[in-house]
Specification:
TIM Barrel; 8-stranded parallel β-barrel; 8 strands; globular; binds 2-phosphoglycolic acid
């Protein structure tokens, strides 16, 4: 299975960052990474200006969220179709930062369906809180999220991101990751890529990416600098 190395820029960036694709291409040329997919998910309004440099460097573009409907009176929202028109072929749905703002499994499932209808691949995020892990409920929580957040579609990616590891510098151990990716694999089957996310950086990428049932990474902080994104991709 091809690895997917996905950068989530969150609310970071400016127009000049379109040049980051050229930077990445210099650090890790497309001809040397035909065995993996690289994806950058910038803030939605930066997708279109990045299309040219990203297609030259064979880098995919994705959104960080989408609305469940195609269009309508939803001020401030962006639909999956709009992301697709702008040049995206992936979209992150159900990131824990959005779930914390009230997004439910049902909303995540509807967004993933909308992405599928628009012809882009949803990256469906799941993950437990520290309290849930400490009370021994991590696997039950994540399994329930998976079952309720994934619609009846074939083309999707799952990202397991323990909330306590996001942006904290704390990474789950290879054992923690393996123990969670195994039950996820049982539910989603062999054909679906399962990413790990949460403080992935060059120093821990090799170990994480060689863990069983890990098919790539969803990277926040370390995806803002092309040196670190390239180093992580080289470990895949
Ligand atoms: P992080 O973020 O790599 O900065 O921990 C990961 C994510 O939120 O997707």
């Amino acid at each position: 299975m091809r690895s997917l190395i996905a950068g989530n820029w969150k609310m970071h960036g400016e127009m000049s960052w379109a040049g980051k694709a050229d930077e990445l291409e210099k650090l890790y040329p497309a001809k040397n990474r035909t065995h993996l997919d690289i994806l950058i998910c910038p803030p939605a309004l930066f997708i279109a200006p990045m299309v040219r440099s990203c297609s030259k460097a064979n880098i995919n573009l994705g959104g960080q969220n989408c609305h469940a409907q195609e269009n309508g009176a939803h001020t401030g929202e962006v639909s999956a179709q709009m992301l697709k028109l702008a040049g995206a072929n992936f979209v992150i749905v159900g990131h824990s930062e959005r779930r914390a703002a009230g997004e439910t499994d049902k909303m995540v499932r509807d967004k993933a369906s909308a992405a599928n209808r628009a012809g882009i691949t949803p990256i469906i995020c799941v993950g437990e809180s520290l309290a849930q892990r400490e009370s021994g409920k991590a696997e039950a929580v994540v399994s329930a999220q998976i079952k309720s957040s994934i619609p009846e579609i074939e083309d999707y990616v799952v990202a397991y991101e323990p909330i306590w590891a996001i942006g904290t510098g704390k990474t789950a151990t290879a054992k923690d990751i393996e123990q969670m990716h195994a039950p996820i694999r049982k539910i989603v089957g062999e054909g679906v890529r399962i990413l790990y996310g949460g403080s992935v950086k060059p120093a821990n990428a090799k170990e994480i990416l060689s863990t069983k049932n890990v098919n790539g990474a969803l990277i926040g902080g370390a995806s803002l600098e092309m040196e670190s994104l390239a180093a992580i991709a080289k470990a895949a």
